[in-house]
Amino acid sequence: MYYRPQDGHGLPHNPFNALITPRPIGWISTRDAQGNDNLSPYSFFNGAAYVPPQVMFSSTGSKEDVGDTKDNVANIRETGVFCVNVCELAKKDAMNASSATLPRGTDEFVKAGVDKADCHEIACARVADAPASLECRMTQIIKLEGKSNFVVLGEVVGIHLRDDCIVDGKFDATTYIPLSRMGYRDYTAVHEVFELIRPDD
């Protein structure tokens, strides 16, 4: 099968997201200028650079009470900061609950029953018991082709690691089982890892 996206795929469901898998989930927390906290998951998320450490996430779609985007991007425009919380399998239901479309200013931490803690370097809440949280200062918001598509890039200025996730001096993802997004409504969990050594190492 071959198709051009502009012509349509002819399938019952769009296969695009199912082709780029698994995708890590950036559970993004922000705070607006009035002090209201927000928490939402994004599966278009990843690391972007090592030195200085940088991350990115993409937001698609918009809300009538925000304008051309959604709450988190609007909040980052106002404050210039955000936090990426690593999502574990044990929090899958809370993560899913935080994805609900709610009125601007609603605290998804409360709605989803997620404990929050203050960040150290930025004025923002974080998921208190996340395996890791990355405090970020926004460096760029880039408008992409299409309506309401934005990429947010940020420099990581503070990192929280949960103590039980550090094993023999390494952050061990198998201690908490990372949750990842597949296509459609599907998710997966990382239960097994293996090591490969690069030829030039």
Automatic annotation (TrEMBL):
UniProt source species: Sulfitobacter aestuariivivens
Protein name: Flavin reductase family protein
Domain Flavin reductase like: 18-173
Transmembrane stretches, start-end: none
Gene3D superfamilies the UniProt entry points to: Electron Transport, Fmn-binding Protein, Chain A (2.30.110.10)
Recorded GO MF terms: FMN binding; oxidoreductase activity, acting on the CH-NH group of donors, NAD or NADP as acceptor
Record-linked SUPFAM superfamilies: FMN-binding split barrel (SSF50475)
